[in-house]
Structures are given as C-alpha cells and as structure tokens.
Amino acid sequence: MTMFETVPVVDVHKENFKEIWPSLLLSIKTSTFIAMDTELSGLGNRKSLVAKSIEDRYKGIATSAKSRSILSIGISCYKLVEVTNSLNKECTDSSEEAQGLPQGGVGPGGCRWKFLVQTYNITTLCEEDYVVEPASLKFLVEHGFDFNRQYAKGVPYCRGNDKVDSKTDTMSLRQLFMEILGAACPIIFHNALMDLVFLYENLYASTPPNMAAFLADLTEMFPAGIYDTKYITDFKHKMPASYLEYVFRKCLRTNKESSLGCKEHAWVEFPTYPAGFSHITRCNCVRPGAAIPSHINKDTQDRLKATVCGSYAGHGWCSRGNSCAKSHDVDLILDIDFLAQSKKSRKRKRRRDNNPKTDNESGGLTEPEEEQEMETTIADMSIVAKEESEVCEKDSLKSSENGAVILPGAVGVGKGPVVSGKHRAGFDAFMTGYIMASYVSEYGTYKGSLKMEDVGLEEIQNLVYLTGKDIALSVVKSGFAKTSKDHREKLSKYC
C-alpha cells in the first residue's frame, strides 16, 4: 500500500523477549536493509556535538555514550519482495525486451518497489549507573515516555566490553546486535553518528580512543554499508528541510502522487499478525486535520503561514516545546510549502508562455535558482540559528511534539491499540526505512536482483551527516588506521 493509516509496531520488553526472539531473528536475517533508531537518556555537552574538529566531536559523543544509556531501540526490517511496472510485470531487462520497453529496469510509467516491513520497539534498561539529563527527562515525560514501564520491563544490558561468559547468553540485546551485524545487510539511520557511537558503546564494545579506529571498526562491522537518510535528503535529494517527520510526510505524499501517476514509487506492506497476538501497537499516520485547498488567496496563505512555528518548520525543533503557541503540524507546513511552490511554478509557466524562448535566454530560472526558490518558504519561517537547532534536533527526533496518546475506542481484537504519537524508537525506525525505500525507488535501478548492492546506490553509501558541516563523514578505513583491540577481540569470539 502506498498510503496506510497505521503502522504495526511489535512492542518488545523483558517479559516477551524470548517469545518474540525467533520472529525477530527471522526478520533480521531476511531483510534487504534494516533501519534503526534509539531513544537516549541524554546527549551530554551540547558544545562538543558541534565542535569544529570532527575528532573532538567524536570524542565528545563517545564520552556521553559511556555515561548515558539507551532507553529504547527501534528496528524496522525492510524486505524488497518484488519490483513491477504498471502492467504488473516484473521490471527485468528480459521482460522489457519482450515487451519492446525501454532499457534500464523501468516499464511503462515506472516501477513499483514493494517492501514487506516488520517493525520492533524494544524497551531497554542499562544495569549500570547512568545519567538522565533533567532536560531530556522532562522532554521524554512530556511526550509520553513511560519510565515506570522502562524500569519494570526494560530488557537488561551492560555497556562497554562483554562481561565474563556473556557469549553463553544466547538471547540478549548484545547478542541481538551481533545478529544484526551477522546479517550483513545495509543499515539505515537518520543522522547516524550519534546512534552509531551509542550502539557501539552500549551493545558492542568500549568505543575506540580515536575516530580513525572507530571508522575502521565500522567498515568491518557493516560490510554492506551504512546509509544516512539525513545526508541523502540534504545533499542528494535537497529538500527544504531534513528533519525526520518532515521528510517522512513528504515521501508519503510523493509516493502517493507517483503511484497515481504510474511513476517510480515505494510500496509497503505489513504482515498479518494473528488475532491473539497482543504485543502490537499501531502508530497512526493519518494527518490530524483536513488538507488546505490547493487554490487560496495570498492573504489566507499569509495568515496560515503566520500560525506556523518558524523554528519547528525549519528544523523540527522548538525551544518552547508544548508551550509554543504556534503550530508544529508538519502537514500544515508541507501544505504551505506546496502552495508557495505551485505559485512560483505558475509564474514560471506564464513567463515561458509570454516569452517562448529557452529559460536562459528569457532570464528564466536556472536549476540552482529553482532549488533556492523552493526553500524560500521554509527559510522565511525559520527563526532559530542553524547550529543551535540542529544540535537539539536529535532530541526532537526522539519524541513528538504531539506525544504518544492512546486514542479512545481504538483497540480492536488482535490489532492492538492505535497511538497518535510519532517518534517512538520503533516508529522512528520505520519512518527512516520508509524514506530509504522511497530513495531506492527514485534513485535505484532494478536489473533483476532484489539486493541493495545491485541497485546502484554506491554514491550515497557510507556517508554520514555532520551537523553544521557542508561535507559528510566518510565511513572508510584509512590506510594509516588500525581497527581497535576491543573490536578484534570481539570478532575473534564470534567468528
């Protein structure tokens, strides 16, 4: 389904961990790619997160990871099951030749890339002392995180290196992380660096003393590559904003339009869970209000624009939080952005119609100028300094401004409750994976193989977003770097 009203998320905790373990492993081992997200007890010194030196930035995050903890982990397993064209024919080179269609894996009107998706939200509990920052605690509580449930039912784990006899524990969070590494499929994050460092320290081994060793370890841990959807959004796709919910809602709209227009699009389906399976929560994806009409006058547009929080529109974060008097509705932000772009498109069309020359001859917009105009609406609404807001964006990715609220009367037999909350770790992981699926359908080329390594996305692989930088962090092993001692010892135990 291109559009879906709810997303099923399997809630995993200490009491059902062993029960769900077999299906969780099967999902991981059969995935085309795995999207992950984490909820954290704090981020540490904010200044270190935007340090000019990338080495200092890494060391600051690593220090935080040794004293903070992971509160929950989201895992969303995406399996590409088929790629078909509008005639429901497989988009292979042979089928194209047989039908006289153009080469390149695209049938008439483009291909539908269908994914089967299973998503898990694992509540975790670090068994060692850890810091919970007051600001993070307040933020999480305001947005629906249940600390009582976490302390009562969190799946236990310890940070740093493996404890003695830890390998004998065949069903643990650390073993689960090793199973993810063993699946050797691409791993997807949105703003990956923080998640990578915290996962390494909390579920793998003590973080290396320097970034060069850390990157060398990552290349061996994730041989199929790491994809950062925030980097892809900013540097490849170039959306006006790149925070998680904005990109997800935008991709939902784009896929719906592309499906109706028989263009390339991602299509997701979910398993049918048995009626007696009580561990499902369904996260609501339906927009809370009606869409803005496509043709409204400028005064109305300006009034609507004035109701939107500029900080949240631009960066997905607002210092006022729930007390902000302005709207944090991402669908409204997208509607306003669409209206502004439509108006500019009509102006360009009239300009071309009145002066039928090439765009460059007539003074029309070049491609970079068009991209700049597309960003104008959101840029105008943004009122917070970029570095400050992007540092805090990691918090905003972890809990929604709308909170996780159970909708009355929304429980069905075998279906689980429907929650309106966004940005639980599980739902965040799903959104991250959905964005990646959308980019696979847009930028990938299907040539008969359902493996990520064969769809031609190498140019955006192993590039991690860096806040405040106009370059990415390249996850490669330097010719002068060695993998860390703890990493080598870890692999020797499991290989």
Task: Describe it.
- The structure is a single chain.
- The protein is α/β, with parallel strands linked by helices.
- The protein folds into two domains: 6-85 and 109-284 and 421-492, Ribonuclease H-like superfamily/Ribonuclease H (Nucleotidyltransferase, domain 5), CATH 3.30.420.10; 298-351, no CATH class.
- 42% of the residues lie in helices and 15% in strands.
- The protein contains 19 helices and twelve strands.
- It has helices at 17-29, 46-49, 54-67, 93-99, 134-142, 147-153, 173-183, 192-203, 211-221, 229-237, 244-260, 298-306, 310-315, 330-354, 367-374, 376-381, 386-398, 425-443, 485-494; strands at 6-12, 33-40, 70-85, 111-126, 155-157, 187-189, 226-228, 265-269, 280-284, 418-419, 463-464, 473-474.
- Strands 1, 2, 3, 4, 5, 6, 7, 8, 9 and 10 form a ten-stranded mixed β-sheet that branches.
- A hairpin with an 8-residue loop joins strand 11 and strand 12.
- Helix 3 packs across helix 8, helix 11 crosses helix 14 (330-354) and helix 11 crosses helix 18.
- The chain is globular.
CATH overall fold name of the largest domain:
Nucleotidyltransferase, domain 5
Structural class: alpha/beta
The gross shape turns out to be globular
What is the correct CATH architecture of the largest domain? 2-Layer Sandwich
* Contiguous helical run count: 19
* CATH class category of the largest domain: Alpha Beta
The total strand number stands at 12
